[in-house]
Amino acid sequence: MDRLLQLCSNETGYGKQEVEAIIGCFLDKISQELSEGHTVDLGACFGVFSVKLHTGTLQEGSPRTPKDSRYRVIFRENNGLRQRLKL
């Protein structure tokens, strides 16, 4: 993360500590939105974070112990990021 902070600081002209505070606030808000069950769309050039409920059910007669249901964060990249990652 230190390299990312330095790159953002150099490009924007803000100090490293200011950039760290802004990015920290941004990530906190994303976490807050996801904890409330909302979807976070970061634009056409990146992707979408969403929350999905995974149930812990198993088929009848399975020897495995069922796990509790829980929420998971899912990331789906958009076309802009997908195009950048192609080699």
Note down, in words, how this protein is organized.
The protein has helices spanning 2-12, 16-35, 79-85, and strands at residues 40-41, 47-54, 70-77. The chain is α+β, with helices and mostly antiparallel strands and 87 residues long. It folds into 2 domains: 1-36; 38-87, no CATH class. A hairpin with a 5-residue loop joins strand 1 and strand 2. Helix 1 (2-12) crosses helix 2. It starts with a helix and ends with a helix. 1% of the residues are buried.
List keywords for this structure.
2 domains, 87 residues, 3-stranded antiparallel β-sheet, elongated, alpha+beta
What sequence of helices (H) and strands (E) makes up the elements?
A: HHEEEH
Number of helical runs? 3
Query: What spatial order of strands do you see in the largest sheet?
Result: 1-2-3
Mean pLDDT, as a whole number? 88
Rg, rounded, reads 19 Å
Number of strands: 3
CA-CA gap between termini? 24 Å
The share of residues in helices is: 40-55%
Global geometry: elongated
Number of domains: 2
Helix/strand class: alpha+beta
Biggest beta sheet summary: 3 strands, antiparallel
Report the portion of residues in β strands.
15-25%
Low-confidence stretches: none
